[in-house]
Amino acid sequence: MTLRAAFILICLAVLNIAAPAGAAGPYEVSLQAFRTDAPATPVLGVVTLTPAPEWHAYGNVQGPSGFPTTVTGQADGADLDALYPPAEPGPDPIDPSLTVELYNGPTPFFLPMAKAPAKLTVRLNALLCSATTCQPLREDLELAVTDPAGLPRAEDQQWWPLYLLSTPGAAESLPETAVETPADAETPKPAVSFSPRYFAPGLEVHTLSKAAGLAFLAGLILNFMPCVLPVITLKLRSFIPAASGMPMQQRQAFRAHNLFFALGMMLYFLILAGIIAATGIAWGQIFQQPSAIITLTAVVFALSLSLFGVYDLPLIDLKGKSAGVKHHPRLESFTTGILATVLATPCSGPFLGGVLAWALIQPPKIIALVLSCIGLGMASPYLAMALMPGLYRFLPRPGAWTAHLERLLGFLLAGTCVYLFGLLPTSAYLDVLILLWAIAVAAWVWGKLTDLNQSMLRRWSIRSSCVALVTAVVFLLFRPTVHQDPWQNFEMPRFQSLLGQENLILDFTADWCPNCKFLEKTVLKPENSARIARDFKATLLRVDLTRHDPELMALLESMGSKSIPILAIFPKERPESPLVLRDLFTSGQLDEALEAELRP
């Protein structure tokens, strides 16, 4: 287990000290009967669920998390329709970013009856969650009403206003199943046809000429987008003449700078057009992936360090070069144009939505043409300046002020890093911070420990070590998992057939159980689980309790628990007496248990 995982495990263990465990359950459930003044429903059964403090049940309607609370009942064998009080919207106890319907505190559920039953049976299914853990609940209750006239009057109870607001429950949703459609079957037509209207109909695209025109305009506007901070940095640098000397030399340098800058932009869009046409990926889809955001964050961070003078970028015309640094004006302008466009792509969506919605369903040639128009529009200001190099006379001259401008733009790029960092999942924060630290170290070594006074061998040996450092950190932090998950889905007939024949390990888990997911990401991660299956010759079965299953819940209760996570080890020599690890445990504790139970 890594140091990071160990730290998180300790924190969660501390948080769970007060969490209820075992069969007791953090709740109370009661069933009572009341009489009413309504002739149609003279008797009212009331099931009251009282969660422990800081625990909550989910509403009856399935939301984005958990699973719904349901009440079913029978009066003398006849089914009853339950009524549910309104739930309160609020943050999910497990994931506060989600808004869900919750039952907080004592909550009554109602079963109206046409007559007093000799036997009333009720089943309550719910999921109770606190801020640190969840526990499924299933309670079977029974009540006999012998004297209806002696029942308490429902209208006098505190919950009566809730009863008046209660409504029938939603039909319990069933998991979707795959159904094969015959090849010759007709595609079902929608029940309703729509005639959509558009808020800005003038921007809707239906022809190639309109798509090309809007694409050119959108590319042009990208140059002036204030939200594209990295692109602004590069554009401002492009307006500063790239050479000193006679006017003719300045004019030629200015023309070459803008021409190659524009060429880099247009080449990028042509390559992008080919990729989209060949793969069918959506525009900007790559920038929705954490790996792409991490890469972009690392690139922008490296650029910001160069603007603070930590080191000089090779092949990127981002700032004035230090004395003695080798300069390749045309190649630097070309690569900087490509980089500018890469950084602009994530911000292009608001201007290209209608254009790309039409273009990306066209043949590859049309896709390439439209994207080329975007590139041409973005490159057009620089092509214009290349055609009219005399404009350089109206541009500011390099001077001491450019150093202050570089520092200011460095801060803007650092702010862009913060923005990109916020787009990442929280689980990636630590790894990305380690990567940025490695980039900072490598950039400092590159800039401070190498210069042209050294031999080429020494200089590039040091620089190669900088690249190797960053590459090694990327590999160690973000290397892909090559281990196949050895856990198999639990099936009761197979479990019964293997019991006593093989060593079995059962992991009781659920999607709503954060501690279960933590164990799966640390102690039970694929590579460690594969080692356990191999070294101890065990079959690994995962018991999924995301949806209530009476058979699986009975198996969990046979382990002496109603809460999860639970890991049960069944030695083939003693299958009737499994060893159970409850709640959170470490890799060391699991190995110790496996050694004791499964080693001959």
Topology record:
Elements: H1 3-15, E1 27-35, E2 43-51, E3 56-58, E4 70-75, E5 78-80, E6 83-84, E7 88-91, E8 99-104, E9 107-113, E10 120-129, E11 134-143, H2 160-165, E12 167-168, H3 208-222, H4 229-238, H5 247-279, H6 290-307, H7 329-344, H8 349-359, H9 364-387, H10 400-422, H11 429-448, H12 456-478, E13 488-489, H13 492-498, E14 503-509, H14 514-521, H15 526-535, E15 538-544, H16 550-558, E16 566-570, E17 579-582, H17 587-598
Parallel strand pairs: 13-15, 14-15
Antiparallel strand pairs: 1-2, 2-9, 3-8, 3-10, 4-5, 4-10, 6-12, 7-8, 10-11, 14-16, 16-17
Mean pLDDT: 77
Oligomer: single chain
Which spans of ≥5 residues are poorly predicted at pLDDT below 50? 1-24, 171-195, 241-246
For the report, how would you describe the main beta sheet?
Answer: 7 strands, antiparallel
Overview features:
single chain; 600 residues; alpha+beta; 5-stranded mixed sheet; 43% helix; elongated
Written description of the protein model:
With 600 residues, the protein is α+β, with helices and mostly antiparallel strands. The protein is built from 17 helices and 17 strands. The protein has helices spanning 3-15, 160-165, 208-222, 229-238, 247-279, 290-307, 329-344, 349-359, 364-387, 400-422, 429-448, 456-478, 492-498, 514-521, 526-535, 550-558, 587-598; strands spanning 27-35, 43-51, 56-58, 70-75, 78-80, 83-84, 88-91, 99-104, 107-113, 120-129, 134-143, 167-168, 488-489, 503-509, 538-544, 566-570, 579-582. Strand 7 (88-91) and strand 8 form a beta hairpin. The longest helix has 33 residues, at 247-279. Mean pLDDT is 77; it is low at 1-24, 171-195 and 241-246.
